[in-house]
Amino acid sequence: QVQLVESGGGLMQPGGSLRLSCAASGFFSIDAMGWYRQAPGKQRELVASITSGGSTNYADSVKGRFTISRDNAKKTLYLQMDSLKPEDTAVYYCNARGRRTVVTRVDYWGQGTQVTVSS
Questions:
Q1: Cα–Cα distance between 33 and 46 in angstroms, integer?
Q2: Residue 96's pLDDT is what?
Q3: How far apart are CA 20 and CA 36, in angstroms?
Q4: How far apart are CA 70 and CA 50, in angstroms?
Q5: CB-based burial of residue 16 (10 Å sphere; 0-12 exposed, 13-18 middle, 19+ buried)?
Q6: Contact 14, 88 (CB under 8 A)
Q7: N or C: at which end does the chain have fewer Cβ atoms within 10 angstroms?
Q8: Are 28 and 52 in contact (CB under 8 A)?
Q9: How far is the C-alpha of 7 from the C-alpha of 103, rounded, in Å?
Q10: Are 50 and 56 in contact, with CB atoms under 8 Å apart?
């Protein structure tokens, strides 16, 4: 059974830091992974992505503040969020694209974790 379990969200003051984790299980292999977020009344947007080889891509709004990384051996994705701003408040979702079996491709989402930045 393919599963993505996120953790690390919570309430933080502006300027603070949080680290999100996403543990993957049930995958035969994983290619690209990414973090997305959705604020109330807004569409889900890409925050950052990373390929299996380590190439990264960031939304302009988080460049220089957020860092995405992954541990392929542990099949875990991370998002280090520094210098948090109130506009970073959203539900953050983990996404993984890969294979559940040798022939079956999957594009899977986690359940989401709430990040609230407020004083």
A1: 11
A2: 97
A3: 12
A4: 8
A5: middle
A6: no
A7: N
A8: no
A9: 30
A10: yes
